[in-house]
What we know:
Elements: H1 3-14, H2 21-33, H3 41-51, H4 54-79, H5 85-112, H6 119-126, H7 151-182, H8 188-222, H9 226-251
Helix pairs in contact: 1-2, 1-7, 2-9, 4-5, 5-8, 7-8, 7-9, 8-9
This protein binds fe (ii) ion (2 copies).
Amino acid sequence: MNKVSELAIDYLQRYNCQVSEDYKTLLREACNLNPPPHGKAWYGKLYRQYSRDAEWFANSLITNATEEGNGAREVWQFANHIGNQQFAELVRSHAIDESRHSKMFVALLNMIFPTKIEADFRTELQALSPEYYHHKHPSIEPVSAEQVLDEKRVMDEIIQINLLEIRALILQLLLRPVLQAYATPENLPRVTRMSDLLIYDETKHIEYSGYCIGKYMEQGDACGGRSLRTWVREMMIYRQKTVNEMFLEDVELESSVGKTVLTTQ
Ligand SMILES: [Fe+2]
Ligand SMILES: [Fe+2]
């Protein structure tokens, strides 16, 4: 049993998320075959060690505000190229959440380090989020038939999103006690509430992407296509491997330990 898949499944259950047994089986298998480094004790230790330095920690919050904002823009773009409109809607909703996360990281920075940052820089930080909301977002222009991605390309992206959102959840769980340690007694309840919301949102991102993976497999079954299921299984295993490799390259840079978003290649 791998700690990362078990934690993800535990959080999915905790928030009453609907994912198929098939998806859970594949996730367990992918994590057993390619154990994610972000579930290892050394990573948690390294993160806690770095985060004791207040300047490093403040920079890490800024990096996350930046990456969540960029992630929101990328995910929004991706949604425009998905043919399945139910999946596209789910991906757009994900982009709106990540746009909010960017703002939440800036709010955490402001709460935890209220005096250390200059006013001008605070304004710049606000602009890191693309400010997507359900009631206000870029117009959804239909793309031409040639620009719609092949279904397997879409599923490859969604599988990567799924595995990276699991990583984002693990990072939020590591971040939580550090945030609480930096908080003052006055802002501790607010900081804790924000951490709860971030953990909830990341779990919901695992849920929706896991749902899409499950639906795709069902669709294969309906056409008698056992091979689709085999393709998804192999892709989950392969992508867990590439996510791990990406992560290990990233971890060599001190500034990237604790980054909640890893950019897919
Ligand atoms: Fe996020
Ligand atoms: Fe997320």
